[in-house]
Amino acid sequence: MLIFKVSLYTLVVASTNVMITASASTNKTGGFRIPIHKNTHYRPNTRAKAYHTLKKYGHHRRISPRDFGRQPLTDVENDVEYYGIVGIGTPPQHFKLDMDTGSSDLWIPSKKCTHSKCAMHSRFDPSMSSTVTELKTTWKIAYGDGSTVGGHLAIDRLEFSEIVVSNQLIGLADKESLSFLDDVVDGVFGLGFPSLSALVLDEREAAKANIQSGGPISNTVLESILNHELIPAPVFGVWLGSGEGDGLDANGGDGEFMFGSIDSSRFEGELTFLPITHPKFWQVPVEGLQMDGEDLDVQGEAIIDTGTTLLVFPMMQAKKINKAIGATSDPWQGYILPCDSNKEGTLDFVMGGRTFEVRKRDLTQICV
Q1: CA pair distance 228, 232, nearest whole angstrom
Q2: Helix or strand holding residue 209 (H, E)
Q3: What is the DSSP letter of 360?
Q4: In this predicted model, what pLDDT tens digit does every residue of 236-293 receive, in sequence order?
Q5: pTM above threshold 0.85
Q6: Catalytic residue among 100, 156, 183, 348
Q7: Which one is catalytic: 98, 156, 186, 305?
Q8: What is the pLDDT of residues 120-133, one digit of tens each?
Q9: CA 216 from centroid of its chain's CA atoms
């Protein structure tokens, strides 16, 4: 039994699922009667409560990185892209999603996608989820590579990396361009900033959905995990394995995202902190580029994008870099170089006063 001295505060006791309010009345003996009301909006989140308890006593930094937030990734076609398995709905329907820091929205194929190639993918069936709220609002996204996708919005339960979001805004794709239809992945799991999001609720639908779902709506995944304090610390890490499976990449081409903590076994040396120059993308300053230590006189800003395998530069800079690595322009293949010439050497990015090497052999996708 717990006894509280109640002043003007509201106290929620999560372990017993009750709410004690400060509207007290006196009885004949001079004591107080304090009504106890059931909290009908309570949603159990044991991990979050454990974290808050640890934080209270100053032990929240001691959580092991292997205890929480690990999202395994699968490599597609020798490092072309990486996907994670994500559950949506109640019970969860599972999807292969491209974990993409270059976009902000979460979308999956809908049962309304009638193209024959849609049947090759997992499609979300709202009738199979007891927690879904479908909306009439439509959406459309055009990505930088020319691919497009569109459909209608919904709100439902999202789970990944042992993290659960009760009311996540989701794009249900009714139409997809061929590049998505032909892809191995089912959809996109955007981890960019909310200002980049193309999924927008109007006020009336947001209010309606909020009443039906019994809680706040999360517009993007990044908003969900930060605003609802679902992770121990406001960080996430990315480790992408190499399809060659050598050295530190003993697990082959697989990888992982790590939400809420840092796994020091995935890197060597000290971390380098870089400022975000445009809080729409994960955009950081690049102080210079070098080829085998030779300065290429290239500076600017770069977007860290896990959704693409490409290095994209302005045309003049691209010509300068390809000349340095010995590549020649090809009308069909872009830039190519002899297979036996790309085994040694590095292209070095200077950021935050430190040099980060990319092996020359990793600049090419396939040997043709």
Answers
A1: 11
A2: helix 203-213
A3: G
A4: 999 888 776 544 444 457 889 999 988 888 888 889 999 999 888 999 999 999 998 8
A5: no
A6: 100
A7: 305
A8: 999 999 999 999 99
A9: 19
